[in-house]
Specification:
alpha+beta, 2 domains, globular, six-stranded antiparallel β-sheet, seven-stranded antiparallel β-sheet
Length: 484
Amino acid sequence: MTKGIIAAGHHKTAEAAALILKDGGNAFDAAIAAFFASFISEPCMSSAGGGAFANVLTAQGKSVFLDFFCQTPKVKRPVSEMEFEPMIVNFGETSETFYIGMGAMAAPGVIAGIYHIHEHFATMPMHVLIEPALEYARKGVVINDFQFFDICVLEDIMTKEEEARKIFYPEGEPLAVGKKLHMPKLADYLEFLVKEGKREFYEGEFAKKLVEDSCSKGGALTMDDMVDYKVNSSKPLSFPYRNKIILTNPLPSIGGTLIGLMMRKLEKRFQNNYQPFSTQHVQTLQKIIDEVYRIEKTVPNLNKKWGSTSHFNIVDKKGNAINITMSNGEGCGYMVPGTNIMMNNMLGEASLLPNGYHSWVPDTRLSSMMSPTLVVNSEGKFEIATGTGGGSRIPSVIVQVLHYIIDFGMDVDTAVDAARMHNEHSELNLEPAFIQKHLPVDQLNVINWEAPAMFFGGVHTIHKKGDDLFASGDDRRDGFAMIA
């Protein structure tokens, strides 16, 4: 009998969840196992040193949104004392500047979030849920094309200090596709963490070493930032679409709000007789994306960001559903010694700091475009789980996949594979099925992509049709779907 279904950013992330579902765990148990596993299977995207959001729906209809994204330090340090270094990343079609170093670290929320999920929703002991991650970290995970790409473009981060360099560039070159990535010190630390509990990470040896290095090497994090970190639990942003309800990330994060604006415009303007990718359909979609991003960008000042972010969805046989979007930024280049845990560089992310670097408000939860999204029917029962990485493109590409499933009745594989567009900063990016002649492109710089690309996210998605569950991992970011 099927125990559940998973759509994730890597087959080992999905496999960890499947193992727990098959062993009798629920979707929330499986999510914890998947999250731990992602530290090894998706190390450029996910880390215990980063932040995340989780959208939770229980089989009984309880809906909770968890914000365990990164928090700014309580006290600003003089810029002249900060280790805060620019790094230009060339992604081929475009390049972006990030800042790394100890001064780019914000307080991490991932471990607090995992323990919150465990305390409130899980059924299995943590030492069981961590087992797949321990095996992957010690025996190794084979590098795929997407992970190799990330390791290469983030070379300055992955080689900044010896501990990371030994993992990702062991012989002076990036780990090649087909080689195994090992993180044995992470396995040792995770075992220690599970024995000691969450306080170890935020008050114990890990926190003490992190804060000691932060103070001596140009960071702003202090012990108070670690000890006082809290998970924010709230109701998701909820709005109707057709005869369904969309549940997504509420304020202060802006991504869910942009999804809501676009979906409301779609509901008013989309005509039932439109054919997919017809002139009328393409023009309507392009205009809606343009309006929302052009009008709203004056509020959060949406900046381009490639998006070192991943996402997974899990639904179990009882109808429990959870999806999580996580990020470490690009990583600040510093691993807490002896743990293989790369810390985030959220204070070096232009997209999170609309008023410029060092403009952050002390002791404040950072906003984000990340928007793990669930769709329920009129009775509050699960229908769709979706989400993605992709920086400022996150809301628009989520909307397009939901639009394809709900309005055109596409199956989940077709909807995830279907072409995407994004219109921002007077730049219109088009995947191949969108034909330029359909579009009003005056005063726009049109970029026609030759093939579907990771620029447009990795919108891993689960869809329930009738009594059956279907999942799709987005090939743009080497996603993977699995039935448990």
